[in-house]
Amino acid sequence: MRVRFLEQAKADLLEHNQYYREEGGSALASKMLSRIKTPILALKDNPEIAQLYELAPGIRRLVVARGAFLVFYRVTASIEILHIRRAERIPVSAPELASLSAKSE
Q: What is the CATH number of the domain that holds 34?
């Protein structure tokens, strides 16, 4: 199954990359992006490994990078990565995820 990063997820990755590059240089940025992307790309072999997100039907939440990030995605004909956010942030709401899903359609 194919993994697709939707627009918000791509923007999230760029933001996280920029943050880590500014904080610790390109080696840290590369290490952190790898910790985020490797488990996401592994979803192609087991797309339903993550639990359903209790606040948004049809959306799954994958914990990556030793618990530092949450990846929100849905499984359709492909695996659509909707949003990647720091775990310590306020929980993402169903309307926020719905708006991200609608933007991609």
A: 3.30.2310.20
Alpha-carbon distance of 33 to 86, in angstroms, equals: 13
Alpha carbons within 13 A on the beta-carbon side of 37: 15
Question: Using alpha carbons only, how large is the chain's radius of gyration in Å?
Answer: 13
How many structural domains compose the chain? 1
Give the Cβ contact number of residue 36 at 10 Å: 20
| Domain range enclosing 12 | 3-104
Give the tens place of pLDDT for each residue, 47-103.
Answer: 999 999 988 889 999 999 999 999 999 999 999 999 999 988 777 877 887 787 666
